[in-house]
């Protein structure tokens, strides 16, 4: 009887350990998969400033991390801006994954990956800008995000 109890006790300990490990790995920010949406903050768009900057309702400004869209000009700059405006019109709700290693830039803007809900899925707009050639990679370590890995 004592032996059975010991076996049961060991089983419980093992189960608790497994639960802890699984719980840790799914909640650890470092563990989230590249390309897997990781949304830390929900926000509402006020207006799009340019292809890589969005103003939020409440006054917060967001700079899309890892990308540089050309400044708004009639030529290529407008493509990035049009793309962002298309998915982030005023009043729409977006998801943010703030750069844990560099949260605010020198202009006071929140540095983040912006997710827009497209056909029911959260889509990484930063990566989309690059994929479509509307913006260039701008990787400034230290950063939680390596834009080169978005396409690995
Ligand atoms: Ca720019
Ligand atoms: Ca983050």
Helices and strands in order:
Blueprint lengths: L1 H26 L13 E10 L2 E4 L4 E4 L2 E2 L8 H11 L5 E6 L11 E9 L2 E4 H7 L4 E2 L15
Parallel strand pairs: 3-6
Antiparallel strand pairs: 1-2, 1-5, 2-3, 4-8, 5-6, 6-7
The structure holds calcium ion (CA) (2 copies).
One calcium ion binds next to loops.
Explain this structure.
A hairpin with a 2-residue loop joins β6 (110-118) and β7. With 152 residues, the protein is of the alpha+beta class. It is elongated and about 80 Å long. It has three helices and eight strands; from the N terminus they run αββββαβββαβ. Strands 1-2-3-6-5 form a five-stranded mixed β-barrel. The protein folds into two domains: 2-31; 41-151, OB fold (Dihydrolipoamide Acetyltransferase, E2P). Residues 21-32 have low confidence and may be disordered. It has helices at 2-27, 77-87, 125-131, and strands at 41-50, 53-56, 61-64, 67-68, 93-98, 110-118, 121-124, 136-137. One calcium ion (CA) binds next to loops.
Task: Write a concise synopsis of the structure shown.
With 152 residues, this protein is of the alpha+beta class. The chain contains three helices and eight strands, in the order αββββαβββαβ. It has two domains: 2-31; 41-151, OB fold (Dihydrolipoamide Acetyltransferase, E2P).
């Amino acid at each position: 009887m004592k032996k059975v109890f010991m076996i049961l006790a060991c089983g419980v300990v093992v189960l608790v350990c497994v639960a802890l490990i699984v719980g840790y790995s799914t909640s650890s920010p470092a563990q989230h998969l590249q390309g897997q949406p990781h949304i830390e903050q929900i926000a509402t768009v006020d207006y799009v400033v340019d292809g890589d900057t969005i103003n939020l309702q409440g006054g917060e400004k967001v700079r899309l991390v890892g990308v540089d869209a050309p400044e708004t000009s009639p030529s290529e700059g407008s493509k990035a801006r049009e793309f962002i405006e298309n998915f982030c019109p005023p009043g729409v709700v977006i998801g943010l994954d703030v750069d844990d290693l560099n949260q605010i830039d020198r202009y006071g803007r929140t540095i983040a990956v912006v997710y827009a809900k497209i056909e029911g899925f959260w889509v990484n707009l930063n990566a989309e800008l690059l994929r479509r050639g509307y913006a260039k990679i701008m990787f400034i370590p230290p950063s939680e995000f390596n834009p080169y890995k978005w396409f690995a």
